Amino acid sequence: METQRRFKSHPQSAPGDFYVVNDECINCGAPHAAAPELIGWATNVENLHCIWKKQPETPEELEQAFAAFNASCVACYRYAGNDPQIMSRIGLDYCDQAARSTKPQSLGVGVLMDNHPIPVLFTLSASQPSLLGSKLYRFIQTVLSFFKTQTK
What we know:
The chain has helices at 30-34, 59-71, 84-90, 96-100, 131-150, and strands at residues 18-20, 39-41, 50-52, 77-79, 105-113, 116-122. By secondary structure, it is an alpha+beta fold. The relative contact order is 0.14.
């Protein structure tokens, strides 16, 4: 059973948890280079658009999927599953299931003060990088790697 997606995926994408948001691809080609067995181009379309032509099935393909997320220029790659290890590697900004839970979750921990329990609430939002921060980090890494190759 396929999990519910937060955004509409391109109709030619392979069914599964990994998808590309429809009409958001800028056809940069970077994810194709990172994961050529998994990422392809939609066919018979007016505007060139990337798709998942195959869902990752092996550990090696999963690594390629992570590389495709890292290479994406506009954050149109998404994960709709709920595997915590995959969500951790991709980052919660790209995970549909993490985005569904916007309220802090109480762990049932409390402190008694004047006989009134005060719940202690924990969230993961403060410990995760922001979407802008993730994109900025990737941009800086790309620029630095370019200069490293130029100085060799």
